[in-house]
Design a protein that fits this description.
Elements (H helix, E strand, L loop, with lengths): L7 H10 L5 H8 L1 H12 L5 E6 L2 E7 L2 H20 L6 H18 L4 H20 L4 H32 L12 H13 L7 H6 L5 H22 L6 H17 L4 H22 L2 H32 L15 H15 L5 H15 L3 H27 L13 H19 L2 H5 L12 H21 L15 H13 L1 H24 L4 H10 L4 E2 L2 E4 L6 E3 L2 H25 L1
Antiparallel strand pairs: 1-2, 3-4, 4-5
Helix pairs in contact: 1-3, 1-5, 3-4, 4-5, 4-10, 4-13, 4-17, 5-6, 5-10, 5-21, 6-7, 6-10, 6-21, 7-8, 7-23, 8-10, 10-12, 10-13, 11-12, 11-16, 12-13, 12-15, 12-16, 13-14, 13-15, 13-17, 14-16, 14-17, 15-16, 15-17, 16-19, 20-21, 20-23, 21-23
């Protein structure tokens, strides 16, 4: 295999070939690209690079160093485990989207220039949005469109920052940015949106619970962690990231308290856990950066395991709300046991992966005498164990029994959970392998008497509090609206002011963009039938609703998401027009 082959190429080649293969072997062939990338990465050395000329620029699609290699390793591992979890899947569109999504994440972390990074950044947005839309419910379509609209807006901001940076510096190299420049702040906002930094985070908790069962597993791995990589690469040592990370850690925990849907609860804990990483990057020390990246590595593995456990529940029962679940342990004992390994990992139990990674960031803050940061991060850890490690499993698999007729669980879903559980346990028992690939050399011992005692105290008292007040902590059938009200309410208002006019004005652009998102990943399955279905779609606007005819049946849906995606597309196209005019001038 060529030494200078960018890893994303293998995933994109797999996505190109997959639709033409017999359905019975597609799931197995899906596993080939991540395995091939793992083999490729084993031969790559720091300092390897590859360049290509494009128009006015010298682009760098491959830039290898310890930081990019660490994320490359864990992204390939996550894609493989996710592929095993999805072996039973027959939806070619989801399989192709997942390969393109994982490949674009790899493309972003190995990109040595900002333009290449931006291209893969946008491919990630398109392909991950499809994993939400592919659930094919009215709610998932609306959530998927909001997700795509928000990321298009973030992409516009990121592109504006990149263009301004190029104009000011004459370079597109992706390196550490100088503070106090407008370009750097715009790029920071673009990265922060994908990292789900409040108040730019609501897209995550809105979309992830509505994704397909397998799609949510992939989504938990790539988007936010690619943003962590970008922050580590470009904004290491920016002090603003420390309070931002601490706020994330606490904000996610608070909203997890209010969540009834188990996948929404896990989504908010992504916000919380990424907060540790953002704070670690902001500390500006080698220990802080090592902590951020080590925690990103382990987070991908244990969060995928947690989403797999929640996905098994949804697949088997068709339910995902704590207020509707309970008494499932007798139906899926292996799922419970494997989920709890993920719960122990995210909660920082000794012997599992979260303990050996999360404590590095806390140690980095202690070495800088940032006692307030240490205290608040410990507080966030308490909330994580309380809700992910205790509340969710108790009210899902134990708690009050409900009347169920669970579907049989495909063997591969449990096998994937077992692989992820083994990886989390191995890292927890033998952290030296993880420490050896961190960006900077590290002399750190996780299993000191002090660290173990602190963890035992926090976890022990949290369990005691949960057990005493468990009757008060059950799920409630409520929906806590987050900062997404900012774009949800205006969308409703614009629809109420004139649905027919708005629908006609944006209908053409909307149909083109929506067709692009679906077509990129579905055209290989049935190109002729897909074109026929797209051609037969008709819209009728009346009494605040759209009637969509064609495809897999009639469906009533709000036009607000259609207005959103059309407006976002027009904004993106207008910005690109300015960009190319600036080049010509």
């Amino acid at each position: 295999m060529p030494e200078h082959l960018p890893p994303f190429v293998l995933f994109f080649m797999g996505a190109l070939v997959l639709p033409f293969l017999p359905r019975r072997i597609r799931g197995w062939v899906f596993l080939v690209p991540p395995l091939a990338v793992l083999w490729l990465l084993s031969g790559l050395e720091s300092g390897t690079s590859a360049s290509v000329s494009f128009l006015l620029w010298e682009l760098q699609p491959l830039r290898v160093d310890r930081l990019s290699l660490l994320f490359g390793w864990v992204f390939a591992m996550a894609a493989f485990v996710g592929g095993v979890y999805a072996l039973h899947l027959k939806d070619t569109g989801q399989q192709v989207a997942a390969l393109l999504y994982a490949g674009s994440a790899l493309g972003a972390v190995f990109a040595g220039d900002l333009l290449t990074l931006f291209v893969f950044w946008e491919v990630m947005a398109l392909t991950s949005a499809y994993l939400v839309l592919a659930r094919r419910t009215q709610v998932s379509r609306a959530s998927g469109m909001r997700y795509l609209y928000v990321h298009l807006g973030g992409g516009v901001i990121l592109l504006a920052g990149i263009v301004l940076h190029w104009v000011e510096s004459g370079s597109l190299a992706f390196e550490l940015f100088e503070p106090r420049t407008t370009a750097a702040w715009l790029i920071l906002v673009g990265f922060a949106l994908n990292a789900a930094v409040p108040p730019l985070h609501a897209w995550l908790a809105d979309a992830y619970p509505e994704a397909t069962v397998t799609g949510a597993v992939f989504m938990s791995a790539f988007t936010t962690k690619t943003a962590v990589y970008a922050l580590a690469r470009g904004f290491w040592g920016w002090e603003i990231l420390v309070p931002a990370g601490v706020i994330m850690a606490l904000y996610g925990v608070v909203y997890a308290v209010l969540s009834d849907d188990i996948r929404r609860l896990l989504a908010y804990h992504i916000v919380s856990q990424v907060g540790y990483m953002v704070a670690g990057v902001g500390l500006g020390t080698e220990m802080g950066l090592n902590g951020a990246t080590a925690h990103a590595f382990t987070h991908i593995l244990y969060k995928g395991l947690l989403f797999m456990g929640a996905g098994v529940v949804l697949y088997s029962t068709g339910r995902s709300k704590l207020s509707e679940l309970g008494g499932l342990a007798r139906y899926m004992p292996w799922t419970v046991a494997l989920y709890m390994i993920g719960a122990f990992s995210i909660s920082g139990f000794p012997l599992w992966s979260g303990f050996v990674s999360k404590s590095i960031t806390v140690e980095a803050a202690e070495l800088l005498s940032r006692e307030n940061v240490v205290l608040l991060l410990h507080l966030a850890s308490i909330g994580t164990f309380l809700h992910t490690g205790l509340k969710l499993p108790y009210f899902t698999w134990w708690g009050p029994r409900r009347t169920y007729e669970p579907k049989p669980i495909p063997w591969n879903m449990v096998a994937a959970m077992a692989i992820a559980a083994l990886l989390n346990t191995w890292i927890g028992l033998f952290p030296g392998g993880l420490y050896s690939i961190l960006p900077h050399a590290i002399d750190y011992e996780a299993y000191t008497f002090s660290h173990v005692v602190k963890a035992a105290q926090l976890l022990g008292f949290t369990f005691l509090a949960f057990w005493i007040f468990r009757a008060k902590l059950g799920g409630e059938a409520l929906m806590a609206l987050d900062t997404d009200w900012v774009y949800r309410r205006p969308a409703r208002a614009s629809y109420a002011l004139g649905p027919a006019v708005v629908a006609r004005a944006f209908g053409v652009v909307d149909r083109v963009v929506y067709g692009l998102v679906g077509g990129v990943v579905r055209v290989g399955r049935d190109p002729v039938g897909w074109l026929e279905r797209m051609g037969s779609v008709k819209t009728k606007a009346a009494s605040g609703a759209l009637r969509v005819e064609g495809g897999e049946g009639a469906e009533t849906a709000s036009t607000s998401f259609r207005v959103s995606i059309a407006a976002g597309a027009i904004l993106a196209l207008f910005t690109l027009l300015i960009f190319f005019l600036r080049i010509v001038v």
